[in-house]
Design goal:
Elements (H helix, E strand, L loop, with lengths): L3 H13 L5 E3 L23 E4 L12 E4 L1 H6 L19 H14 L2 H24 L5 E7 L2 E6 L10 H11 L10 E4 L7 H17 L2
Parallel strand pairs: 1-2
Antiparallel strand pairs: 2-3, 4-5, 5-6
Length: 214
């Protein structure tokens, strides 16, 4: 995670050079970063956006690629040589599209936005506590953006191939919590329907786990 101003400057430079930019919002879309799309943190926008996951709330597989008018118009022609030949087996699947519409209706509800904001607020408190204890815990690079919190555990090989991820995942599962660390990187990315008690359970587990590391 980094200050969005750097991405904004990069997009501005790329646009000056007429380089097409693609925003992969599969993970960051639909509120994950505290805004509906991560691109909303920027002044400059990408030319193409890829969406999935949160689009249907995880109930069905569905992906969407949207683009700016100038890209769309580049392929809009009676000249078949300009056709963007493509096709997908489940294009416009009615069930997936219905699930997406229902999911978007839920996302736009006041209660859903309030729940996202509540998770963001609780994450901020958790991150503050972690940073206050960081001198006594084997962790580094604590960061948060919206409903995502991540940090590295300083133990073993300092890479994504660190076997510590398996140990953490097994301990968490034994405690009724599903975590999927990437090597020594632990992250929390809860579903928006998580309750206060459930989220506190995750925080408490991590505090107990980290206290046992030397």
């Amino acid at each position: 995670m980094y200050d969005p101003k750097w991405m904004d400057e990069l997009l501005a430079e790329l646009r000056l050079n007429q380089i097409i930019c693609i925003a992969d919002e599969v993970l960051t879309g639909f509120g994950r970063t505290g805004k509906i799309f991560a691109g909303e943190h920027l002044g400059n926008k990408a030319d193409i956006i890829c969406l999935s996951k949160g689009l249907t709330g995880g109930t069905m597989a569905l992906g969407v690629t949207a683009c700016t008018r100038n890209i769309f118009d580049a392929f809009l022609s009676d000249d078949r040589s300009k056709t963007f030949f493509h096709g997908h087996s489940f294009t416009a699947n009615p069930l997936a599209c219905c699930a997406a519409l229902a999911s978007l209706d839920l996302l736009e509800k006041k209660e859903s936005i309030e729940q996202i904001n509540d998770i963001v607020s609780r994450h901020k408190k958790f991150v503050t506590e972690l940073k206050n204890l960081s001198d006594d815990l084997p962790i580094k690079n604590i960061r948060q953006l919206g409903t995502v919190v991540a940090f590295e555990i300083v133990s073993g090989n300092d890479t994504y191939l660190n076997n510590i991820s398996r140990q953490i995942a097994e301990k968490a599962l034994a405690d009724g919590i599903f975590l999927r660390p990437l090597g020594n990187t632990v992250y929390i990315m809860p579903p928006y329907c998580i309750t206060e008690a459930q989220l506190n359970k995750v925080y408490d587990f991590l505090f107990r786990l980290l206290a046992k590391f030397e």
